[in-house]
């Protein structure tokens, strides 16, 4: 099984990151994404690769950065990591432009907006710097690859947890940030596609917590809980909205009575899972994504033309039942 293709089982994929992060960074192959220890590729040239996360404000990006830096060290690559303090295209674009001036050999970026980042990314490529994306997509065909956990599959997985826990059906809610964030848009699509196929469920209007604030998300979700007694499930689309949903559930003392899905697997989400404020987490395994980003970039710079344009990974569902398993532990954002 290739980690660059959607896996047939979640267990198999998540076991690979555990091995890669514990031992593979010393020079082992990760299903085709191979780098040699202490070298920067077949050319022998010392490489510099820049990583621009969506922001420095989220446990997801902290975990992805850790994976990127560990893989860079193992490959003998000089890493540059620079991100904006908030998740906004207006603050990420100047960071990208500043990185371009440093002239790294390649750039890895998690775009904050699929449209707004397209032209700045293409400008970097036009300047002779190859670019790949992780996490969120960008509206450009000029990147050399994109690696991300499939958000559509993650949306479907969350819907399945809700449907399995509520066989009699009911109302469900999706909590978004704002349209245009490709990964969140895809999560909603996967969620809606799965839920709409089951006539027992009614999908309420999406709630948008545009400030990307847990406090705002809680304030928006609480009235929905109060006014919809048939509400059986809530899907929080990222770590921030998951915190807001957990707070709203705890305030209403409804732990375990409404099935709540928190996307990502940050430390606070794990705490909320243990308390029952969240029913399940959906991990993207960002540390592994950061690792694969370095490995694929080194291969590309060495002239490898076999790298797929799109490399979707399978998200992993974490519940109280499997939280202590090795697979789940390797998927947490630490």
State the name of the first-level CATH class of the largest domain: Alpha Beta
Portion in helices: 40-55%
CATH fold descriptor of the largest domain: Rossmann fold
Using the alpha-carbon principal axes, give the shape.
Answer: elongated
Discrete helix count: 11
Architecture of the largest domain in CATH?
3-Layer(aba) Sandwich
Radius of gyration: 20 Å
CATH superfamily of the largest domain: Response regulator
N→C terminal distance: 26 Å
Provide an overview of this structure.
Keywords: Signal. It holds the Pfam family Peripla_BP_4. 42% of the residues lie in helices and 16% in strands. The protein is α/β, with parallel strands linked by helices and 334 residues long. It folds into two domains: 48-148 and 285-314, Response regulator (Rossmann fold), CATH 3.40.50.2300; 151-283, Rossmann fold (3-Layer(aba) Sandwich), CATH 3.40.50. Strands 6, 7, 8, 9, 10, 11 and 13 form a seven-stranded mixed sheet that branches. α9 links the parallel β10 and β11. It is elongated. The two termini are 26 Å apart. The relative contact order is 0.17. Residues 1-40 have low confidence and may be disordered.
């Amino acid at each position: 099984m290739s980690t660059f293709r959607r896996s047939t089982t979640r267990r198999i994929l998540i076991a690979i990151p555990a091995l890669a992060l514990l031992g593979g960074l010393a020079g082992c192959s990760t299903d085709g994404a191979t780098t040699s220890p202490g070298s920067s590729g077949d050319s022998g040239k010392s490489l510099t690769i820049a990583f621009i996360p969506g922001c420095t404000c989220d446990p997801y990006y902290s975990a992805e950065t850790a994976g990127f830096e560990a893989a860079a060290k193992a490959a003998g690559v000089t890493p540059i990591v620079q991100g904006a303090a908030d998740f906004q295209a207006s603050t990420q674009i100047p960071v990208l432009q500043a990185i371009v001036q440093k002239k790294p050999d390649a750039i890895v970026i998690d775009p904050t907006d699929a449209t707004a980042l397209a032209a700045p990314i293409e400008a970097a490529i036009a300047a002779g710097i190859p670019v790949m994306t992780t996490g969120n997509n960008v509206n450009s065909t000029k990147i050399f690859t994109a690696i991300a956990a499939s958000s559509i599959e993650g949306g479907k997985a969350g819907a399945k947890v809700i449907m399995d826990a509520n066989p009699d059906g009911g109302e469900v809610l999706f909590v978004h940030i704002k349209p245009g964030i490709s990964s969140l848009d895809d999560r909603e699509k996967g969620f809606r596609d799965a839920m709409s196929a089951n006539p027992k469920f009614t999908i309420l209007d999406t709630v948008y917590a545009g400030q990307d604030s847990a406090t705002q998300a809680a304030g928006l979700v609480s009235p929905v809980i109060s006014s919809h007694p048939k509400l059986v499930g809530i899907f929080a689309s990222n770590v921030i909205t998951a915190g807001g949903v957990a707070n709203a559930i705890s305030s209403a003392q409804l732990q375990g009575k409404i099935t709540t899905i928190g996307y990502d697997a940050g430390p606070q989400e794990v705490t909320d899972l243990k308390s029952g404020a969240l029913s399940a987490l959906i991990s993207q395994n960002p540390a592994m994504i950061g690792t694969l980003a370095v490995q694929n970039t080194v291969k590309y710079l060495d002239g490898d033309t076999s790298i797929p344009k799109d490399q979707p990974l399978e998200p992993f569902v974490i519940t109280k039942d499997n939280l202590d398993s090795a697979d789940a532990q390797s998927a947490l954002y630490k």
